[in-house]
Design goal:
Helices cover about 40% and strands about 10% of the residues. By secondary structure, the chain is an alpha/beta fold. The strands form two sheets. Strands 1-7-6-5-4-2-3 form a seven-stranded mixed beta sheet, sandwiched between helices. A four-stranded antiparallel beta sheet has the order 8-9-11-10, covered by helices on one side. Helix 4 packs antiparallel against helix 13 and helix 6 crosses helix 12. The two termini are about 45 Å apart. Bound molecules: pyridoxal-5'-phosphate. The site of pyridoxal-5'-phosphate has 14 residues, from helix 6.
Amino acid sequence: MADLALPSHPTDWPADAIRQVGYRTVDMIAAYLQELPEGPVFRPVPPALVRDAFSTLMPEDGADPAAVLDTIAAQILPYPFGNGHPRFSGWVRSPPAVIGIFADALAAAMNPSVAGGNHAAVHVEHQVVGWFKELLGLPPTAAGQLVSGGSAAALTALGVARHVAAQRAGVDVRVAGLQHTATTFTAYVSPETHGCHRKALELLGLGSEQIRQIDTDAALRMAPADLDAALVRDQRAGCTPVAVIASVGSVSTGAIDPLEAIADICAHHGVWLHVDGAYGAPAMLVDEYAAALAPLARADSVGVDPHKWMYVPIEAGLVLVRDAAAMRDAYSLVPPYLRTDGDPDGVGGPPWFSEFGLQQTRGFRALKVWAAIMHLGVAGYRAAIEHTLGLAAHLANRVRQAPELELWEPTSLSIVCFRYVGDGIGGGEEPVPLDALNRALCTELQLSGEVFPTSTVVRGRTYLRSCLLHPASTMDDIDRLVHAVRLTGRRLAQAHAGGPARPYADDVNDR
Ligand SMILES: *Cc1c(COP(=O)(O)O)cnc(C)c1O
């Protein structure tokens, strides 16, 4: 590509230059995705690279596109955080649907703002939103839009919930804010609820004194009786509940809150139900979880992350709100008397997304979601989700069979939490401090490049945590994880006990 002249204008590239740079980029994408599974799951960024490459000042003079791509190839592509590798099982991260990579490039080429208007991107987003309404069982009259992720979905939805709750308490929150209101606004979560809801509630004016932590049962599901009692207590005290936040697939263990019972309680008390389906909602496509997730249809608002179990390249979150008028009331800056049902055949198009959410200029996120769903179809998603559930079941079984490992049960969805307890060193006294051991074990495994679980704390104890989302992970990949955990765990336990560290290989052959 050395012959390619430096285009002098940012947008006005000759078609040949676009092709040349584009083909090279495609080659880089292909090589990246092909080589990823063969390399280490993770390798830290060398400090020298951070110092020398990622600390330079903004250049005065531009460079040839070939030079820019060379730098990306040499300094950026070799240091991902593991996601996309078949032995990566950290957090809730998936590999990208390849078609989504290209759809994102095409969306960037069009570069529309999807604030609104009568252009294709707006209609594609409405189609995608419509698909999810149908999937989750919300009525066609519900409103929704794509956002950056579950956090933005939570903020957007809870902003509507606050608006509605305040209205019922006689407060127009858009006029008075939450200053000087006679009532205290409250919200209801469990200790397992994702932290993004706390952030959202804090931004909306509710602090930890107003956020009620509802206890969970032995399976870490929100306890409906405790929720009911808290709502009774607060309503008697003159508080105004803003929302109950239930999770279908908690981020720690995948626990699914008892939706039907929670929806009943919310209906009884007239309280908004927000369901966090960021991770777990797509599981409603498979028989095993369809019934547990069906009451999602009763939610007032839902967040789902297509960038997790649906393989859409990050960022792609979705928020749905049953009451479209309330969503518009909470965000629109157009006075009610000027609001229209849109101008479907003219320039304006349907009612603008910007009237229903936080953003004005909005990216064409919908194209990558649309393309991934068009390409995979419901059947493709069902197969991928079933496969990853099978991986999780296999991992849970392997852990049950390993005497020195302890499984957190019940497992749920595609998350498996387990910890190293050593041969008979678990139980009562715990001569080896197991939390510290498992934290060290997690770090060591991550640095090994062989596997990449993360960790979580369940009922005060540290567990390794694997969230299986990769459709190309195999049972062998799972076996390698278990093998690495047993070997490394034994080595760390022996080192801690002051005994001779046994060799790292050969002594536990469970592959
Ligand atoms: C990831 C996640 C979130 C937060 O969503 P982001 O896309 O990271 O903003 C919320 N809840 C659950 C259960 C999640 O897994």
